[in-house]
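thread: overnight batch results

M.L. [08:02]
morning all. the overnight job finished for the chain we discussed friday. pasting input first so we're all looking at the same thing
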Amino acid sequence: MDILSALADIFPSKRLKTSLVERIAFAGDAGFYQMIPEAVVQPENEHEIGELFRLSQQTGVPLVFRAAGTSLSGQSITNGILVDIGKHWQKAEVLDEGKTVQVQPGIIGSRVNQHLQKFGRKIGPDPASINAAMMGGILSNNASGMCCGVTYNSYHTLKTIRFMLPNGNVYDTANPEHYEKFEKQEPELFAGLTQWRQTITGNQEVYENIRSKYRMKNTVGYSLNAFVDYEHPLDIMAHLMIGAEGTLGFISSATLQTLPDLPFKAAAILYFPGIYEACSAIEQLKHSGAEALELMDRSALRSVDQLPGLPEFFRELPAGAAALLCEYQAENRYTLDQLLEQAMDLCNGLPLLYKADFTINEAIRQFFWKIRKGMFPSVGAVRQRGSTVILEDIAFPVPKLADAVIDLQRLFVEFGYNNAIIFGHAKEGNIHFVVTQLLNSDAEIARYDSFMRKVVALVLEKYGGTLKAEHGTGRNMAPFVEAEWGGVAYRIMQHLKATVDPMNLLNPGVIINADKEAHIKNLKQMPEVESEVDKCIECGFCEHHCPSKDVTLTPRQRIQVRRHLKQMQTAGDTGSYKKLLFEYQYAGLDTCATDGLCQVDCPVSINTGDLVKRLRHEQHGSTANGIANFVARNFGKAEWMVRFAVGTGITMNRVFGNRFMEKVTDVIRSVMPSMPRWWNELEMPPPKISHLPANPSVVYLSACIQRMMGNNGGNGSVQQAMLDVSRKAGVGLLIPAEMAGHCCGQAFSSKGYFEAAAIRQRALIDALWEWTDQGKFPVVCDFTSCTYTLLKAGATLEEPYRSRFAKLNIMDSIRFLQELVLPKIEVVSKKEKVVLHPGCAATKLQLINDMKQIAACCADEVIIPKDAGCCGMAGDRGFLFPELTESATLLELAEANAVDADGYYGSAKTCEMALTHFSGKPYKHIVFLVKDIIK
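M.L. [08:03]
and the structure it wrote out:
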C-alpha cells in the first residue's frame, strides 16, 4: 500500500504535509534527537485518528503524536507518520465555576490558565515551558513544574479523561457506562491490568518501591502508581495514559481539577556559603509553607551575572556558594504577613551570607524569577557554535541532595563539562543539570555515553533517586528504565505495551526499548549556519507567537531547515539541497512576516525576522538594489503614484462593480504572482493636511501608509482625528507641510533593501531635526510599526544622524494619547464595550497596558482576545500572500466576532485593514475611540 496515497484518501491536501521542507521542519523537537517523518498530518476529529490507527497497522508505519514539540528527550519525532495535533485540538471549557477545566491536547497550558484567570484558578502543572507547551504534552509527560510538587502534577489533578486505543475504541471515564464497555471490548487488556495489579500489590518489595519512588518526582517508564492508587482497570488505564508519552493511545480530552491562583506573593533569594548549607535549609523552609524553593549552584549563578540589576555582591559570591529562590503565596495579605514573619524567624537562624529580604514588590519578584529562569538559556547563548544544549532532570531524596549535587559536580569535572550548571526544584529534591555537548564525532558521542552511564549509576545505585523527574522518559532514558524499576516492574511495562500496541507502532523506542544504545542514536546535528541563529536551542518557545505557524514554518522550523540545508551542502547532496532550497523560498522567506515577536519569549533572544531580512537581502542583485535605491531617493513621487493608483482603483470599482479590481488583480496574479491583490478595505487617500499652531509642543509624523491608504471607514483621516483630539487637550500639534515623501524605511528594510531603508531614514532624521527645532519638541508617530522601526534604527545610524537621533524624543500615538491627551480632556460619553488589537509592534514596545488604559477611559469593558498577536500583514504580505494573514488572524477574530462590541481598534493601518477584511468588523485607529468620547 502506498502510504501517501492512503493518507491523501483521509486528509485534504492542506492538512497533509509531504514536501521535503515540511517533513524536515518536523524532524526535531526541543530535544537532541531528529528523525525525518514520511508525512505530517493534522487530524481534526477522533474519526481521523481512528483511520490513522487503522492505516498504521495495515502498513506497519509508526505513528507519533506531537503537540507543541517542546519535549526535551525526543518524544515527539518519528520516521513514520507524525500527527500534529497543535492546530485543531485547541478547545478549553471551564466547568464548576473554575474548579475544573476540560481541555483538548492542542491548547497551550498558559491559554488554559487565561480561561481560568477570572475565577482565580489555575491548572496544577506549572512547567517552565507553560507558555509554549500544549496540554497533550503536559499530560503525556506528566508535567509538573516549580510549585506543584508531587501533589498537583498532571496525574494527581486528573479528574476524567477521554482516550482512544490503537484498536480504535474510545473510552471516557466521565461516562459510567464505559466501565462495563471497557471490560467487554478489551478482555485481554482488562484481565492483564487486573493481573498486573495483583502482582504489584502481592509483591511487598515492588509495592514499596513504587510508593517510595513516587514520593519523589518520577516520570520514568509508565505511571506504575496507577496500579496501587486505583482498582478498576479502566481507572488504572486512564492514569497509565498520563506520562505514557503517546505510546499507548491518543488523549482527545481531559478534565483537570484546578487550584487557587493565590494572589499575594513574596519572594527572596537566600544566599548560602555552600551547597550543604542550602540543602540543609530545604526541609525547614518547606515546612514553613514555602510554595517554591529553587536551588541554584555557583555555576548557575555565574551564568547570569551579566544580567542588569543584580546586587553588587552577586558577582563576588564565594566559589562554592549556592542560593535558594524562596517564595511564599497566600490568599490574603494577612496570611502572607504571618508566613513572612515565621520565615524571617527561620531565616535569622540560617547560615546566610546576606540577610534575607523578602519582597512583595511584583517587579522585583519577577526579576528574581528572571534570574532563575535565565540560567538555562544563558548557557545556550554562550555555548560553542555547533554544540547542543542537553538539559536533564533527576531527583534525589532531599536529605541526600547536597551529597548528590557535589558528586554530580565532580562528574562534570571528570568529563570536561566546564560550563555545566545545576538548578532545580529543591523542595522536591528535583534538580536539572545543563551541559553543552558536541555530537559530531564518535569520540564526543562516546564521552556523552560514558557520562550518562555514570549519572545513571550515581542516581540509582548510590542515592536511590529517579532518572527523570518531570520531563518524561524519552529516548535518552529508555535504555535505563529497567535499571530504574527492576525486572518485575519492567516486565509489567513490557506486557502493558505489547497488549495495547502489539505491533509496537505507537512512538516505538520511547519508554520501552531493548536497544541499550538508543540514547546515542538518531542524534541531532547542529552545524554552524548564520551567526544570528547559531545560538538557537530549538526549544520552540517562539512558535506560538508566529503568524505563519499554521501556514508554512515557525521561527524554530526556519532555523532547523537552515541547518539541514547546511548538512546537505556539506555532504554533497546537491539534489536534495536544491530541492529544499527551492521549497524554502515560499515556506521560509516569502511567508515570514518578520514581525520579530519570536524574540519575545525566545530564551536566547533571537529575532528570526532579522535573519529572513538578511536572506532576502542576499537574494537581491545590483539591479534590484538599484531600483530600490532609486525609489527611496524619489519616494515623494512613489507616494504620489500609490495614492493615484489607490484612487484610480476605487473609482474603477465604483464604475464597474465592487469586485472589479479584485478580479483584475487576481487575473494579473495568475501570470505575475508578485502583483499585490486588491482589497476593498483600501479607500480614497486622505487629503493632505498641515498645521502650524501658535505654540507648537509636539511634532506629528504621519506614516506614509496612513497618508496613502485611506480614511478609516469613511470616518475621516487619522491625521484630522489626531489634530482634533490634540486641540481638545490643548496640545499644539505641529503637522509639517513637507511631510509627503518621508518614510521610516520599513517598507524597504522588511524586504532586505537595507541601503534604500537607510536613505529614507537619513532623510527623515534630517527632516525631524528641522521640524523639532533640533530636538526641542517630541515627535509622535501614528503607526506603531513605524515607531518601532524608527526606534530600532537608532542603533545603526552613522554620524551625524546618530547624534541627532539621540536628541529626538520619538513616541507612539498610543503613549501620546495616554500621557498627553487623555489627562487633559473630559470624557463625555463612554462606549459600553470595545475590542483591541495591540499588534506586534505594540507588544515589542510594551504599549499594551497603555492601550488598555486608553480604552478603559473610553469604555466600560475592554476586550483583548487571548490569541491577539501579529496579523501577518507585515506591510504588504497580506496583499501578496493572503493565506498568511487569514491564518494569523483566525483565532483572534473568532473571539472578537463572538463579541457584540461598540468598536474595534488598533494602531496600525495595515493591521486594521487585515482584521476588517477577514472579520467584517470595522477596525479603526485608537485615536477615533478617543475622538468619539469627547464629542
